[in-house]
Amino acid sequence: MTAAAAALVTACSGGAVPADRSSTAGGPQASPARLGYDLPDDPATMLFPATGAETRWTQGLEVFTQQVARVTAASCARDTGTGFFGQPPLAFIRFSDVPDLDFVARHGFGQSAEVPEPTAPAPSAGAPATGRSADHATARDCRGRAQAAAETLRGPYAGLQAQWLRGLSSLHSDPAVARALRSLPACFSAHGVKARDEDGFFARADAALNTAAPTELPCLDREFGSVYATCMRPVEAVREPARVRARRSFLTENATEVRDLRRDLVPSLRRAERRYGVRLAFPAP
Among 28, 143, 206, 258, which residue has the fewest nearby CB atoms (within 10 Å)? Predict the structure, then answer.
């Protein structure tokens, strides 16, 4: 076990606990992540997140489109008698450029809310495809239908959203952000983790978690999450307002597209919920 892991396991065993940690965050009794269902007042927030909490809506939207694709593919497979699909479970994936510090401080890096299962009824099966080549062709067709269903939802916003997310990394070069990032090594060290920067911290955490005993993993993961949140808060205190300002300019520069998205996004999602039996849900701390 690494020195970092040893120090944090001591905290799990009753030693010092980082000051900003929730009283429910540590130990085996930690509460699980929950799901939320309320949409933001402004749909653009879901597409162009500027704060960690806002990324929960973005995560939920991405999982929703993946669920729509899977329901479409599975329905097609059942209708055509095509045997395929044993896909891994979906998960809410956080954004490294917009860290959700409250969530990470409470749950660590490894836990998220459980993605809800679709409620769509299975359609009646059609005649099965015959022969290997026919089966493969039908499988390709089902995958194509699944992709088309997802793109019907993603298409109107995907390009603009990708543009926004790509631009977030440029904030690392902002002088105030760069100064705040230089404080990370000392903070990490004060909490028992020797790391030169954010990437170094994640490397240390991965190494420690990969070698820890299974019984130590949940608490150790939360301890690393708590240390990360503690040390990143001064960075986010500078970076978050910069992202909010950048988003304001971004929305103004793309006012026509954003107006259409604000008008159309939520109705399209509600129609998809009814059609595919998938509920739009978001991780919550």
Answer: 28
Model confidence pLDDT, tens digit, residues 144-196: 999 999 999 999 999 999 999 999 988 888 899 999 999 999 999 999 999 99
Can you tell me the distance from the alpha carbon of 17 to that of 226, in angstroms, rounded to the nearest whole number? 9
Encoding tokens for residue 28? 């085996």
Helix axis angle, 52-80 to 132-168, nearest 10°? 170
Using alpha carbons, select from 128, 120, 132, 136 the residue that is nearest to residue 72.
120
pTM over the 0.70 mark: yes
- Cβ-contact 141, 252 below 8 angstroms: no
194-219 pLDDT tens trace: 999 999 999 999 999 998 888 889 99
The C-alpha atoms of residue 216 and residue 5 are separated, in whole angstroms, by 10
